[in-house]
Amino acid sequence: MNFHFSSNTIPGKLAFIFTLLGLVSPGAFAADESDEEPVSEECLKFAADLDADLGEVLRAGCEPTLAQMSALMDNPLGNVAMLFTQFDYTKMENPENDKTGYRTVYTGIFQFPKKLNDDWNLINRVVWTVPSMPLDQDKIDDFQLSPDPDDLGTNPGGGLNPGDFPAPLDLFSGRETGFGDMYYNGLFAPNEGIELDGGARFLWGVGFDLGIPTAQEDILGTGKWLAGPSALGVYMGPKWKIGGLLQHYEDFEGDDDREDVSLTNLQYFVFYSLDETSSIGAAPNIICDWEASSDNECTIPVGIGYSETVQIGKVPVRFGLEFHYNVENPDDDVGDEWNVRFYIIPAAPSALFEWMG
After folding, report:
1. Averaged pLDDT of the chain
2. What Cα–Cα distance (Å) separates residue 219 from each residue in 10, 24, 88?
3. Could you report the per-residue pLDDT of 316-325, keeping only the tens digit for each?
4. Nearest to residue 71, comparing CAs of 87, 57, 88?
5. What is the per-residue pLDDT across 151-169, written as a single tens digit (0 to 9) for each?
6. Domain residues of the chain, as ranges?
7. Half-sphere exposure (CA, 13 Å, Cβ side) for 149?
């Protein structure tokens, strides 16, 4: 089967970008279906099996169906490479004076598996952030804080710790936008999950986290090198996908004038499949800052949203929109009231990439 693409179309541009990044060969995608050959009986059999091995599908010269790719993207430990483009818009509130401000964060995540042996994979997640905070760094630099003038920490989700600033500094005056900290998460996971009744499976993985202080300005990052353990567990049923990714960070190096970091992030997710390519649910982040006082430690959100996987040329792309509302916030420190999250996720089976095998 011969493939070609044009960089003047949306799928062509995606393919061109992926090719420039060295992720796939130009033949991996096609924007023009005019030269397609009739589908063989073998490919039709593969297409009818939602759980077909996509490596075998590709080696047979067939193409994964949209339903197969959507099911693979549902699996957080699956053999799929995904490029998350996520935007969060968050309303913040200061309980001291009832003033509000808005934080935006762009988060990019490149997730890809690496086969270790016949039984285990290493699931890699490389994360970068671009926060935009409702406070000008110059105002912080001009304001004489005591005793720690650089006590400007943020959490791994891009959240400001504004409780560190004493009055009269106006927390919601001005704006600072720039590159934030980077993170790596690695999860060691078995290739096969635990089979349950009714065609369901339980998947799990354990690993480690690393935080890298790459922020352009103090207010956009922690100023610390971070590390800690992580674990993931998920129930994958015919309709329900329920689970969570637990991460913990402790600082071990960095600016001594900055606040210590001891922080836990639990991204829990609950999704219900409406059909083979769409679902409702959400994946909010529970964040607990153990360096804060007892009444200001945890932020607990609930949420709802909708996601749909569509085909753009030969590229499966998932679009999603979620709304999160915090049912628990810090009592005294500035906290988040609600959050809107939009994401776009193009994906490709890892069998396309030899270096992932």
Report:
1. 82
2. 36, 37, 17
3. 999 999 999 9
4. 57
5. 444 445 454 343 344 334 5
6. 95-308+324-334+348-356
7. 8
